[in-house]
Fold this sequence. Notes:
- This protein is α/β, with parallel strands linked by helices.
- Helix 1 (about 15-25) links the parallel strand 1 (about 5-10) and strand 2 (about 30-35).
- It has helices at about 15-25, 35-45, 60-70, 90-95, 110-120; strands at about 5-10, 30-35, 50-55, 80-85, 100-105.
Amino acid sequence: MTRKKILIIDDDARNIFALKATLKAKGFDCLSCFDAIEALKVLKDIEVDIVLIDMMMPEMDGYDAIPAIRALKNNLQLPIISVTAQAMVGDREKCLEAGADDYISKPINVDKLMELLNNYLQ
């Protein structure tokens, strides 16, 4: 069985480090980008199985990045899970309206994250 490849997009190196360590321990391959602009370049050349994207980033936030990712060839059906620290009322709906498939808030509950990943990576 091939390992599933996850792209993590987050401007905070600590979040990337923690997510990569957790996901690698669970058997996933991980790529990471510190901003959405870099992620768009990566996604033009590399196929991934799912994207975890921070919604609050400088230059291009997740709300603008998700439609841009979807516009890339072969990414219309790519599962995208938005990750946000805000967890305000209406955030989930706003993320879904931007084109995310699902939503998880920080600090990330690993069991909840694994449940989401399993739902999309069957």
